[in-house]
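Dear Dr. H.,

I hope your travels went smoothly. While you were away I took the liberty of generating a structure for the chain from your last submission, since the lab meeting agenda had it listed for discussion. I wanted you to have the full record in hand beforehand rather than looking at slides cold. The sequence, exactly as received, is reproduced here:
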Amino acid sequence: MSGFAFPYAVGGDGRTVGADPDAHVRQMVELVLFTSPGERVNRPDFGSGARQLLFAGSSPEIATAVEFLVKGALQRWLGDVLQVESLGVTADDSTLRIDIAYRLLATDERRATTLVREA
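The corresponding predicted structure, in token form, is as follows:
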């Protein structure tokens, strides 16, 4: 186990449920991207704010703004874990799709993930 599973859970044996390294990093990315600043009491600047733009409509300008927010948040909060290599954002009606390709700094392995959030 390299990290706790998100959301935090206790297994049937009473131990903390863990996540493999790939799942753990993906969960951290999802947590950063879909947490809005101000949502965390003890860390009010944590998050990306991408979810707030979900209702702003679908336009190239909104997609560009989301890309900027997402890349900045990942560099700030997970910059010691991964390096973003490519990023694509698609906003259709009430659905936000984020395609991320990144390199894990500890192992130099490349990974890609797609995160989809509906309003």
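Two observations you may find useful: The chain has one domain: 3-118. The chain has a mean pLDDT of 85.

With kind regards,
E. W.
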